[in-house]
Amino acid sequence: MWKQIESYSLNWRAETNTGTINLRLVDGTTASINPDTVQELAALGDILRNEEPLYYNTRFGDISTGWEPTGEQEK
Q1: pLDDT at 68
Q2: What DSSP assignment string belongs to 6-30?
Q3: pLDDT value at position 65?
Q4: End-to-end CA distance of the chain, in Å?
Q5: Given a cut of 80, is residue 75 above it in pLDDT?
Q6: Residues 11 and 20: beta-carbon distance below 8 Å
Q7: What Rg do the C-alpha atoms of the chain give, in angstroms?
Q8: Furthest-apart CA atoms within the chain: distance in Å
Q9: Partners of 64 in the β-ladder
Q10: What pTM was computed for the model?
Q11: Do 55 and 64 meet the contact criterion of CB atoms below 8 Å apart?
Q12: What pLDDT, on the 0 to 100 scale, is given for residue 24?
């Protein structure tokens, strides 16, 4: 089921090279994603920071943007 993402936090533990992305969804539930690399954490962080609206699939763990017109410029 797709749910809209309300807010997030990024965490990277350099000592163990492990990260977590914590998501708060609009219905009050939470979810976590464990990226494999710091580069993946950065890429997902960029999407979370710069795109809206964003949705999280609670069954598969996917993040998706909403539909945007072709050629749209960011704010």
Answers
A1: 83
A2: EEEEEEEETTTTEEEEEEEETTS-E
A3: 93
A4: 29
A5: no
A6: yes
A7: 13
A8: 42
A9: 55
A10: 0.86
A11: yes
A12: 98
Tokens of 23: 């998501």
Q: Where are the domains of the chain?
A: 2-65
Token pair recorded at residue 11 = 């965490």
- DSSP conformational letter for 72: P
**CATH code at 2-65:** 2.40.50
Token code pair at residue 1? 């089921």
Structure tokens at 9: 């936090």
Q: What is the DSSP code (8-state) at residue 37? A: S
Cα dihedral angle (3, 21, 40, 57), rounded to 10 degrees?
Answer: -20
Residue 66: which residues within 8 A CB-CB, separation 6 or more? 52, 53, 54, 55
Length of the chain: 75
Alpha-carbon dihedral angle through residues 31, 37, 41, 47, given to the nearest 10 degrees: -100
